[in-house]
Specification:
4 strands, DUF4864, 5 helices, Nuclear Transport Factor 2, Chain: A, DUF4864 domain-containing protein, 40% helix, NTF2-like_dom_sf, globular, four-stranded antiparallel beta sheet
Length: 118
């Protein structure tokens, strides 16, 4: 994995989070891997799912990038998120390199950390 790959992975995640923050469904959807796009069909369906099932990803208060791991051979970027209530959640983004070399988000798993700012 090159430094350029690491940067591209981070940028894909940052761009998706930024798109969620400003309600830009098309931009958020564009960072999803083709398999995710096929599964949800439209940007609006995708954003509704993220808002309902992944609120810390949809509207984080803070974002801190952590280690890049490998999960079943795929790069997995760990990101510490603080949700709107002050809870810490580790998001593990499964990344997939596309034919043209760009990186897309192929999945995201949330793990509560057990810390609350409250």
């Amino acid at each position: 994995m090159t430094e350029a790959d690491l940067l591209a992975i981070r940028q894909a995640i940052e761009q998706q989070i930024a798109a969620f923050q400003v309600n830009d469904a098309a931009a958020a959807f564009s960072q999803a891997a083709p398999s995710i796009q096929v599964e949800f069909g439209t940007a609006e369906n995708f954003v509704r799912m993220v808002e309902a099932a992944y609120p810390p990803v949809y509207r984080p208060r803070s974002v801190v990038f952590e280690d890049l791991l490998r999960v079943e051979g795929l790069p997995a970027q760990q990101v510490m998120l603080m949700d709107q209530s002050g809870q810490l959640i580790r998001a593990t983004y499964i990344m997939q390199q596309q034919r043209m070399g760009d990186w897309k988000i192929a999945g995201c798993y949330l793990t509560p950390i057990g810390y609350s700012e409250a």
